[in-house]
What we know:
Order of helices and strands: HEEEEHEHEHEEEHHEHEHEEEHH
CATH class of the largest domain: Alpha Beta
Radius of gyration: 30 Å
Amino acid sequence: xxxxxxxxxxxxxxxxxxxxxxxxxSNENEETKAAATETKSExxxxxxxxxxxxxxxxxxxxxxxxxxxxxxxRDENNELVGxxxxxxxxVGEYLGVEIEFQTIDWPMKEMELxxxxxxxxxxxxxxxxxxxxxxxxxxxxxxxxQVVAVMxxxxxxxxxxxxxxxxxxxxxxxxxxxxDSMPEIRDSFADLVxxxxxxxxxxxxxxxxxxxxxxxxxxxxxxxxxxxxxxQFKILEEDFxxxxxxxxxxxxxxxxLNALNEALDALKADGTTAEISIKWFGEDIxx
Length: 287
């Protein structure tokens, strides 16, 4: 009996010891899992900057028209500058991704995006119904108008005065879509000519080869204000309508779209967009 009792005691002791080891092992596993989860979360936060949306990108290639002042253009040192350039760089810093700008043939912008040559269209890019069929847009960040610039001594003061006149606009631009939306005005032109850039349209006007230019108000106001004699030009009070600027994203890039919207909201909240706007426009005009 004593031997049996002694064996029972030893067996119970062994079982208790095994239980303690198992509990310790379980606790260690839970602690290890928790530490791994925390490390993964920290890693994700580092990869995506301040944003809460997970991104697969470490670099974003942005397609621009480098003649579209003041949104994106070349300065006297051939450096790419502008409102959209500064805003895109601020968004890249917020998201923790590198930003690379790539000059593109503007009429081919949607093809460049959807073929994967660029990741974003971001350079005074207007939201239109036709473009919505090809790309997704972020929330709009700026209002704009399609206005008409003429020479001050032209005698043109209204849209009706464009009857029988030669009007210029950039190829595949929202200006053309705005003109097409008012066929009664468009059909009265003597001719509607298109050029690859807005700068070329303005040269046509200055050279007397066209009577008017239809383009974005942000561009025409900026370019005219930087001419040697801005008083030579006039922008009509009547225009071809209001529109909104946004960033173009591939339709399947939902995570990137959400991250961009988050970044734009955060930069507006902390005053960054206002600072950039005042730098380029002299006031905060960001939506």
